């Protein structure tokens, strides 16, 4: 927050020596004050109501300027998603925290807000996947994930659920993608690679030596597989003479 001097402006005469002029410095004096607050803050506006005792007509005060039409604005949904998927705070834990601070925020409401917002930002999500596919180096791996309920194809005999992480690097930029479902890291990487531009050279895939990390690529799609040295030694591919 910028705070202007109450009495002086750029170019004014110096009040001390009365000979020179004062000029704004590049580095202002920093004054830091930190306060605590709830992750989501609620403001209650009590709009005065007046009722005519003859005709019953009701008159309500105007809403303050800047108050949007929605109870939950975009920043609320973004904060819930960041806490849940970026920081690992479960919906029920956030519900209890907000309740202790006097702000009701049921877990079901949080899910509905995140679900609605996810639909709005899906084009941005799809574009991140497309850009990640063009990377020079692709790292991938997966881990088991507990999901309470998931629809399965009747012909799918697999029972495991996994979260795959794919990190794409190119020109000093990193894009991290996460996929949770029945597919392993290699299968998810194969789906991502379908969007790679055909005129690009084969990227380097960096992963451990588990077979489920290696994608089964579509015809014409190539990748340079690179495993970490420790897994090469464990698998016996590199042997000492």
From TrEMBL:
It holds the Pfam family DDE_Tnp_IS66. Coiled coil: none annotated. InterPro entries: Transposase-related, Transposase_IS66_central. Residues 73-232 form the Transposase IS66 central domain. This is Transposase IS66. The lineage of its organism: Bacteria, Pseudomonadati, Acidobacteriota, Terriglobia, Bryobacterales.
